[in-house]
Write a structure and sequence with these properties.
Distance between the termini: 38 Å
Number of strands: 5
Order of helices and strands: HHEEHHEHEHEH
Largest sheet: 5 strands, mixed
Strand content: 15-25%
Number of helices: 7
Helix content: 40-55%
Radius of gyration: 15 Å
Structural class: alpha/beta
Shape: globular
Amino acid sequence: MKTILEFNKMDESQKDEYFMHKAYQEALKALNENEIPVGAIVVCEDKIITRAHNQTELLNDVTAHAEMLAITSTSATLGGKYLQQCCLYVTLEPCVMCAGALAWSQIGRIVYGAQDKKRGYSRVKPEILHPRTIVKYGVLECDCSSLMIAFFKNKR
C-alpha cells in the first residue's frame, strides 16, 4: 500500500497505472461472478469515489455495464449529474451506450486499458464523447486484454 507521501510523488502515468490496477481488481470480481470481466473506478482529486464491475447477469439488465453503474453511483455520492472533475478508469474501452452516458455526465477524463475492436465507441462513433473529455488508452493493456481473451476462450 502506498503512503500519501509516496502517492503524491507519483507522476500522472504512475497514478494512471495505480488506479487501473484498482479497476482491474473490479474486473476480477466480475470474472468470479461469471460476468464479462470489466471493472471501473471513478477518481476525484486522487480519491476513489466509486468502484464497479459488470453486473448484467446478476441484475438481468443489459445496461448494467461497469461504467453505467459507476456513473450512477458517483453522481449519487457527489450529489450532482456532472462529473467534470472526475476521471473514469475502466479496463475495456466503453461501448457506444456507455460513451453516450459519459458524454452526458461531462466526465473530465477517461482512461481505459484494452481497446474493444468490435464494440468500442472509437470504432463506431468516435465523436460521441463530450468535447472537453480527455481520453487516454492502453494503460495495463496486456493485462486487461488477456483477461477478456481468457474469459471468452473459456466460454467457447
